[in-house]
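Input/output pair, single chain:
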Amino acid sequence: MVLNLENVKKYFPIRAGVFLQVKGWVRAVENVSLEVDEDSIVGIVGESGCGKTTLAKLIVKVYRPTEGRITFYKDGSRYDITQDLHSIERTFRKDVQMIHQNPFDSLDPRMNIYEIISEPLRAHKIFDNKKEEREYVKELLEIVGLNTNMLERYPHEFSGGQRQRIAIARALALNPRLLVCDEPTSALDVSVQNQIVNLLLKIQKEHKISYLFISHNLDLIRYISKRIYVIYLGRVVEEGFSRDVFSHPLHPYTISLMQSVPGWDPMIRKLGNIKLEGEPPSPINPPSGCPFHPRCPYTQERCKSEEPELLGDVHKVACHFPRI
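Output:
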């Protein structure tokens, strides 16, 4: 195992008034538990605003969790990085890297490509010799399919797909064990998306890196992920192996996501027509009971007052009345 999350929460305070007193909380992530194994691809799927990106930033330590535990595994040891990150921070920063959604925003426009890719190498003092460092950066460019004569160019001189390849090269520079991919293809043209996905799969196979792949694209998640977590309003509502979840979804929210994709498996239609209408409830004031009950066509009285637990053996679901 590489990473384990146990009952992780992230609340953001809402401040108002002269003294900026806390008037409420944005409950962005609520009791999320998940595991990422060695050499695996774990998918996280959900509609916009469900907490996917916040969860990614918790994992890479941009945010500190409000509650819960994040455990990082290294060389047979385990580290609670919510408590003692300072003891392994340099190792953790090397081993866990992130690929952002928009490659243009994630690359400093004032730095050329060589400076961008070599920045983490200099921060961690990987090379003493400038020549060795430059040769290594060239190798990284070749891995991501870019010409080595591009080193002195700047981000604005590249297309979106090329910029994302540069971002991938930078993420690979420190030879990480886990890549957190936050919708790395959603800002790209459709014609380029497949190229980036195939590149990531090739890198994962050759370098034995684990991926936590976040997307709202169900086709993509089904294609690349071994295990998936379906998130709604900051909560995991269904999890399991991809083949199980996509062949036999249990939660009405999962079914509604699948039915929203044109040309999806017609067998899913037999589970009932579940239209995902309206906007998700506000994470500032989430509904009582099951968070999905205001939009669920199968809501009963129990759903309005009692929040379901995530139950099951391998295939888990948080629903009082799953679509079995």
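The chain has a mean pLDDT of 89. The first strand starts at residue 3 and ends at 16.
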